[in-house]
């Protein structure tokens, strides 16, 4: 028999522990060109206290270390994810890439391969580097959003925006954008879609979710992605307007 | 460091310019580029600072933890450093590429702050031999535009100066052993005293002259550099020779003198900014979303 | 407009060659945003597209840069951010920033990255390195003949890794790499000076990209975004191309080149002006450079590195360009 807490009172009014309603996203700020002009493209994406920076170098000639196994008709997309040692509440004591980082790196690379027009620059290499500064839930989806913005900033031709968000079902209510506090208590479904076509390209589930809830959570996640897409697109448009005024 | 490839002609132009006291960007040999510093970059740390000097961009974050003092220094707390070169700074830092650079910087910082003259480690001790604070200072290099060591040293000083150390209001006894008691009020904290902490002035030798705040191109033209720690009162806390150059005694002496003068100025400006940052932190309990406030600028 | 807390005035001000350092560190308010979001009026250009937007569903259009064909419904979709341009049946999206593609006839500044058999690889800020064939350069002796085996062996003496050259794009290979040539007095190895990198899209396409400016410096505005500034005419290393006058069969020794302090200041000032124009995303060509140079004269050269000064110069140049646009 579970005891009632003040949080249960809030839940009855559909208010989450941090004061948001179930369909409300945390505050999002994103900025393009943060490392201009050293990197070809760069962007930062902050959602609540989750902060990610991404930098894109290239396209450029394939570096000699990769050249031996390189097929000159193909394009190499190189992606590395790293998290700062101070990013999580439990401090990471070494800067060496652990298995989790390597897995996220390769997942991010396949997302990039989904959206970058295949082999548009045969014989070239594009480097995408993502750095997680602070993790307060939804870090993987924030990485995808930051990497997409950085690619757009670099002017690399892409098929569509890749946007991602987390969603879950808790207390019989569908919620979107899970923060770290909520992550411990319910399932966390990370959904990534191609923004215009709504095709799902990323799907990851942590913890238990009843299967009859899955469709509702997916729908909610796709709606959340549409909201993120609007924000990203607005940032891109602002940058374009600023530059368009200067370029005649 | 990410080496920049230069032609003989470019090097000739650069080196001769340094000799004439007109560097490639018009600065004199002792001029710094401009930069800015901000706090509260990473809200889950006790102190965090983002410092930028031209293209160089570094985040320094400090987390405070409880621990046991080292046996050889039972009255002192511990400050540890970790440097991470992010690949966002350069594709050369991918994987383990930035490790060597990170090791060098880490070593210099550790030896600088191990001295009690730089920072009062006794203030980090709660109960001698039993409990002390361990401050883990993590440095993340986001962009490297030359003069990395100096910027990191400034960032570390600013971070330690604005780091909120929880205040232990007393000790209680648990099974005969003293245990620190922390107040429930999270606004009860102390700042570390960094008034004696040094900054590092790196002087690469370009041709026959030393320059301050070198760009990546200038560092590529120098065979070696001297990293000199300068305390706010002008005293020298450390001298490290990096690179492959050989020096005469008198040129080291001259450069140390130069670094002392420069370091005093840098320390003065930095201390002043750290005080401003502490004030801005006090004001930082603002409603969200933030609105622009005219009266916020405190001179 | 800025919400930053300005640092105090520099400790030692005035006088150009100071004895003590000038160190300026500002304090940024933690919520301040120096990109000044929302200050640019939102003009919704009618033909603005973003990646994934369908440009047209009609058949019969050729796809140019910045577009791709969606295989499922054969519609033409934008792949970069920019404005749609239709020229007859060719549809392109003119993106801001982005990759330097390179067209035949472009003037580029590049750095030699590799010396290979009978060719050099040149970094020209493109997606592939440019190729400079041994047969595409003027021989140092000025002869017109087939290249021999000795020439191949002596390639490193002509151009080695790290050297900076100015060249013209001769042709585009099938794989997209660019063939360069320096078969003209204007092009070749560049002498003492400095290289500045800016986004390739802000270099305005003009008839002339090599300028010998009245302030005493020469500047080469490479279409690829690499800009070379030098006190020497045409930026070139004298004596490396014997079709110039004063040819006496000897190569100029680098150490004999003298550069005055005034020239150095002019080069430095121009370099900082270019950085200021690049930061404000203003087009770079000879006129905008001169505007920026004039606007910068009230500051000392080293002060031009400050972000607020760079922004001010950008504003002044933008206003002057608007006046020029309105007047003409």
Structural class of chain A: alpha+beta
Helix % of chain A is: 25-40%
How many extended strands of chain A? 9
Q: What would CATH call the architecture of one domain in chain C?
A: Beta Barrel
Layout of secondary structure:
The complex is a heterotrimer of chains A (248), B (299) and C (328).
Chain A: H1 6-12, E1 28-32, E2 41-47, E3 50-61, H2 64-67, E4 76-83, H3 99-115, E5 124-134, H4 139-154, E6 162-170, E7 173-176, H5 180-183, E8 188-194, E9 200-206, H6 214-246
Parallel strand pairs in A: 4-5
Antiparallel strand pairs in A: 1-2, 2-3, 3-5, 6-7, 6-8, 8-9
Chain B: H1 8-19, E1 35-39, E2 47-53, E3 56-67, E4 78-85, H2 99-113, E5 125-127, E6 131-143, H3 148-161, E7 164-166, E8 168-174, E9 177-182, E10 189-191, E11 199-206, E12 209-210, H4 216-220, E13 224-230, E14 236-243, H5 249-282
Parallel strand pairs in B: 4-6
Antiparallel strand pairs in B: 1-2, 2-3, 3-6, 5-6, 7-10, 8-9, 11-12, 11-13, 13-14
Chain C: E1 25-27, E2 48-49, E3 54-56, E4 62-63, E5 67-69, E6 76-78, E7 82-87, E8 90-95, E9 107-116, E10 119-123, E11 130-133, H1 149-153, H2 155-158, E12 164-172, E13 178-181, E14 188-189, E15 194-197, E16 210-212, E17 218-221, E18 226-230, H3 261-279, H4 286-296, H5 307-327
Parallel strand pairs in C: 4-8, 11-13
Antiparallel strand pairs in C: 2-7, 3-6, 5-6, 7-8, 9-10, 9-12, 10-11, 12-13, 12-14, 15-18, 16-17, 17-18
InterPro entries (chain C): Exosome_cplx_N_dom, Exosome_RNA_bind1/RRP40/RRP4, KH_dom_type_1, KH_dom_type_1_sf, NA-bd_OB-fold, S1_domain, S1_RRP4
Organism (chain C): Orchesella dallaii
Family (chain C): Belongs to the RRP4 family.
